[in-house]
Input
Amino acid sequence: MEKIPISKFKAQCLGILDKVHKEKKRIIITRRGIPIAEVRSLEVTDDKKVPLKDTVLFMGDIVSPVSEDEWEVLN
Output
């Protein structure tokens, strides 16, 4: 895994990101020799599922105001 100083990352950010994406590499960014961040290629999946789709059930009118009789907090 390649390590680069933050100053080099700042100066060459776009080129480094292209390299990471094309070569599927991980790069550690350091500040004064201490690792502070990791840059890696994002793994894109073809999964088009929406996690919560069709999981909500509406019970009654959700738009109209609730009358004071139905608002149990007021009792």
Remarks:
- The first helix runs from residue 6 to 11.
- Residues 45 and 51 are 14 Å apart (CA to CA).
